Amino acid sequence: MHDPATIEAGIPDDQLLPLRVWLALFSSVKQIEAVVRTNLRESFASTLPRFDLLSQLYRSPGGLTMGEISARLMVTNGNVTGLITRLVDEGLVDRLQDEDDRRVQWVRLTPKGNKMFSSMAPANQTWVTQAMAGLSDAELRQLQTLLGKLKSSVAAAPKHPRGDEDPSAG
Amino acid sequence: MHDPATIEAGIPDDQLLPLRVWLALFSSVKQIEAVVRTNLRESFASTLPRFDLLSQLYRSPGGLTMGEISARLMVTNGNVTGLITRLVDEGLVDRLQDEDDRRVQWVRLTPKGNKMFSSMAPANQTWVTQAMAGLSDAELRQLQTLLGKLKSSVAAAPKHPRGDEDPSAG
DNA sequence: GCATTATATTTTATGTATAAACTATCTCGC
DNA sequence: GCGAGATAGTTTATACATAAAATATAATGC
């Protein structure tokens, strides 16, 4: 039961639950990501970041600014610049300047990009559904509820907590 | 309630639960990752992949082979080569050849690496615990159970499912 | 023994990601 | 108007990640 990587690091066993849940979360996501990534590559010669980006644009027919994309994908601005550049090269999206604010870039799906996402989305849904087929609807809803609470919890947590305190003391 | 990115892609609303759970999982992990990454950088001038690698080595005092590290971190061999090279440069790990099989590289923590991980582990545990402070122990255990089921489910799913079928038909 | 095959790791080319510095533009207060 | 700061995005340097090809060694079958 005791985890050698934490015993010697001085972490009592009864404090390990959040850490264990975090590791389980992390590996679940990596596992599913691997499935989706492999399938996206084999079926569409595409990638997960590209798919996520197309997905965001798909649900925003009016387009999105670079900053809004960055916020929604939870990645840096510079990352979005690179992703968009590649997608523009592939003809899946186009960019246009804002009329009023010349700092702002609007990004939209091209018809080709729209068609591309429309064919990817059902496939992606199938892969994810099959990966989660071992969970009942009730379990999925339970998971959804818990993840909702987790999201609030993380948002409420201090951004730069001191890492040298005993978490059991709080 | 209806999600425009799926309605138009022809996905009925009652089939969206797994997809929604997947998105919630994905964003939860990214959220927590961001916290941990920021803190690792600010407190230890380090990164999450380095920390995960040190953690694996810490709990294997006899060392690990490159392949075993790759399997445990769920990343490619080539990725591990690069990570280890950087950690060797920093003096946190060392490599040695297997006596019997000259293809095999054994990797172990140096005393410096051991000390480094020992100081990082409690801090990491604090950050994660604080991020999850909004969930009760009962909820964390519930989450742990569900993630265990999810892991089995993903492992049991076909690796290369056809993505062009209606998942409601299965 | 020797060719074949399998295994362990590295290399190569490319894509994705960050943080920090930088450029350009806008807004606000005066 | 104008200067100070804020905001949007890009660039730079570097790290992390993949897939595929290459290298080196080991194990197997004959």
TrEMBL record, chains A, B:
Pfam families: MarR. One of its GO terms (molecular function) is DNA binding. It comes from the Bacteria. GO terms for biological process: response to stress. InterPro entries: HTH_MarR-typ, MarR/SlyA-like, Tscrpt_reg_MarR-type_CS, WH-like_DNA-bd_sf, WH_DNA-bd_sf. Residues 22-152 form the HTH marR-type domain. This is MarR family transcriptional regulator. The lineage of its organism: Bacteria, Pseudomonadati, Pseudomonadota, Alphaproteobacteria, Rhodospirillales.
